[in-house]
């Protein structure tokens, strides 16, 4: 590798380097201890240790080339090499291309300048095709070279970054280097002759966390396949941990969660992932989650500044965050104040004098925001003006499509006008009012105590709007949170849900979208629509809105439209309950966008087939219980109880367990605080019932206690009619339990557990996501092994090892073959056996690793024929059951001599099938191999059982039904056997045995033909075999292939399988060969250790 020329003082390096070659201008040196017998003694060990521990240019490679200036002690390092071959190539290039040119220069200075320029040019040329794109390219290139040299991974494996750290082997820390690449975590250490090399694939990581104890002050704990690894002594441990967390989750998404992966353009090309890119992505995700912005937004700039708060009359310090379509601000204490300014709302951007460095942003509605002490404020104003110009044009183009009446003076209404126009066009189908206003209109004449309290709440919000503004750009302060905790008034609930969830931005960016989707989805019929129809009447059935066609039809349209928009989620139970509540307080189109915000941003992966998001948040909840309620975890050691109880809490936001009038207050807090509100409330509920739970004898008693508690949660300020309220239906006489007001419960959850930070929840989600998905994968594996073990003659531990190898080979394709069509075939909704399938290329690689005949010359042909035999439905994919059956045929040998013939029969049956590749009709095709589990459609249970019974009791009949082996197939069959025997200790006797078998079979065929005709088509062939009596493979092959045209002219001869089997079993050498025992465990262990290196060679 060419290096950027740097000065090296040769005088101090002589003890570490030995000279191998030199000329007038260049010196080739070898690192002491490399290439010497015994490692170069103590000096070599010390040098090796230095190379591993120290971060210096000299330690990168064992060979280097220096450019020397005559009469000077200063040399320039210009190249290094990992081996002698690489460095010799560089040396030869210098001698052929540079040496002759240097003689024309007059001064040493000119020679040095020329060499430096040439080397820099070579590096620049290499850089065009290099993956190294980090802050310090030279240092990164050196690390990349050592990474490739130490671990031998394919060139496509992208090194993201590397760190110096210690790896704890027992109680001893080993100093070395940690390398983080797209698919692997790798560690290398060399200390005093002891080498440690560790490679862990990210997809095998089940736990990743920061830990600390007495010995390790702060370390990173990695658990992979049951083994624990600890890394410590990082310079920036938080940065390292964040990158490791991102890479692990990236791999998990790419391999196990294809639905999320396909929707994420960042994950498309792993070769483009860099450390800086991962850091930027993390910041963007945090930015979008905090401000509830669309997932497509990317954080572009962050500026520290002050924002003037007109209602408090002071400037608050914080950060201005700018993305493509939004300007946001959050104070240093996130709860104090935050603002979201969509660029579509901006009218003007101005700057004041240089002393205050102020930026003033004016928006629609006569509101202005003043940012002070903004660094580079003039450049920022220019950029924002450019952005707003583009944004204004975009939304102006949209609005001009809608005719605006002459009395419309407010430009902020343009988008709403178009949206209303689209709604009018579909007025026959889409409701434009919230169901609550239709079914429970407020009667101002009959104001009772509850209605007066409701009006007071509205007045409090109106005062807040007057101070902080109203709409998407309002100031969000601590007062806003306090009002949300008290409960949002009925009349404002829909508006504020839209605002706090960010759904208002989605709807503004997609005017008319909902009406179009409703029109397109009407009349569609699929599994999702069938499930929706089944659940419509189960959604808040006690509420009058959903006892009428108006509510049911609106619910049907919203759910069907969402299933049409996002077919990967489609419809999931619990979505109906949530949507019905949304429809009560929001207009139909708003309810649709609220559902989008919940399913796609606020509760990610909750409503997919495996509800991974809900399982992850349950694991987070369990972690919080351990931290905040330790006495409960000590008493209830089985944490699965909390998972079973809390699943409905998370999926329905407590709507399914709390009375509706109380549940809506929880939804208020959820839209303001996100999942944090649900976690806090869950902790508060368990804390409130702590004494009762600690005396429960079993889980059923604990569930009863919690259900009783939920029945007694009330909302004393709810203005809903008593006919609708669910909590009021429980009379005081029936229940002696104390009533709990939802407002008090929520306030208590905020006071006790409000210290839980968004960042901590995000980190816990990432950490537990690894565990949840690995647990699901383990469940899949156990189910596959349970099914396969019934039909395959391998033990469970052997099948377990084989499954790991099978799955790893599949993942290697995911790692480096981006265009591989198999990437499209992982679908967790499929039956367990069909979730992972390999193609022919992957089967070939595994066949080379596991087959006892992988050394034969035609191993690729054997692999291809075997794959075709297994691939019954011709989709070019086979599952683990089919794969393991093929391996079992070739690996398992009976230890009982009495079963020798039976096993040989199976094996030879397998070989005979390989050469009957294209059956003449369907009956023959069926006889080649029957597998009742291979069907891709619905399985007929009776037919399945019948076919299974036939397989068990009619083995002999199936063998007899095998088609006869014709002339060309028999020749190929014989060749295959010859190739198998090559290299065997009994090779000569095996060849002789095959010659005898062939001769015998042809004589039998001749006798058979004599009964029907006076001449035998096989006479000349058999005579040649008998006359030769030779065992040489080449000579017998020549007889087999001699004059094939003349054989075709005569009637074709063929053999039945029984004839072949009987002839082969007569030869002891052949029987010994096929009954030779194989150590399956050793074969699997060898395959595991060599799988990665064999893939690299391929």
From TrEMBL:
User: What sequence ranges are listed for the domain EF-hand?
Assistant: 858-893
Q: State the species of origin.
A: Equus caballus (Horse)
Boundaries of each Rab-GAP TBC domain copy?
A: 487-674
Q: Which GO terms describe its biological process?
A: glomerular filtration
Presence of keyword Nucleotide-binding: no
In Swiss-Prot or TrEMBL terms, this protein is called TBC1 domain family member 8B
Q: What functional role does this protein have?
A: Involved in vesicular recycling, probably as a RAB11B GTPase-activating protein.
Query: Which subcellular locations apply to this protein?
Result: Cytoplasm, Cytosol
Q: Which GO terms describe its cellular component?
A: cytosol
Q: Which InterPro entries match?
A: EF-hand-dom_pair, EF_hand_dom, GRAM, PH-like_dom_sf, Rab-GAP-TBC_dom, Rab-GAP_TBC_sf, TBC1D8B_PH-GRAM1, TBC1D8B_PH-GRAM2
Question: SMART domains attached here?
Answer: GRAM, TBC
State the CDD domains in the record: PH-GRAM1_TBC1D8B (cd13350), PH-GRAM2_TBC1D8B (cd13352)
Share what the entry says about its subunit structure, partners included. Answer: Interacts (via domain Rab-GAP TBC) with RAB11B (in GTP-bound form).
UniProt keyword Cytoplasm, yes or no: yes
The UniProt keyword set, sorted, is: Cytoplasm, GTPase activation, Repeat
Molecular function (Gene Ontology), one example: calcium ion binding
- Pfam family for this entry, one: RabGAP-TBC
